[in-house]
Amino acid sequence: MIDWKRIEELRAEVGEKDFTEVASIFLEEVDETVARIRNAPNPNSLQQDLHFLKGSSMNLGFTAFSSLCYEGEIAARRGDVAQIDLLKLFETYTHSREEFLKNVVL
């Protein structure tokens, strides 16, 4: 679910102080995007939202969530929005976020 090696790489690349800031911004932006999709899904912007979520989550090691976002992005590009399991996407993000926060002090 979480690529801890990627998290350690990012921490080494940016330093501890900047890592905390990067992780906090990531969580804030992803929380906002997930909430927007959950509360007011827009088929016209879903592909772009999932693309953003995929890239952001990949950078911070949320591998399972990133994979689901990628699959959803591809489905949205094909026009198969109904095939995207948003509930699974939301649950995976919630579990990934909880696991991350249990192991990383911000």
UniProtKB/TrEMBL annotation:
The keyword Transcription does not apply. Keywords: Phosphoprotein, Two-component regulatory system. GO terms for biological process: phosphorelay signal transduction system. Gene3D superfamilies: HPT domain (1.20.120.160). GO terms for molecular function: protein kinase activity. Residues 8-104 form the HPt domain. The modification Phosphohistidine is found at H51. InterPro entries: HPT_dom_sf, Sig_transdc_His_kin_Hpt_dom. This is HPt (Histidine-containing phosphotransfer) domain-containing protein.
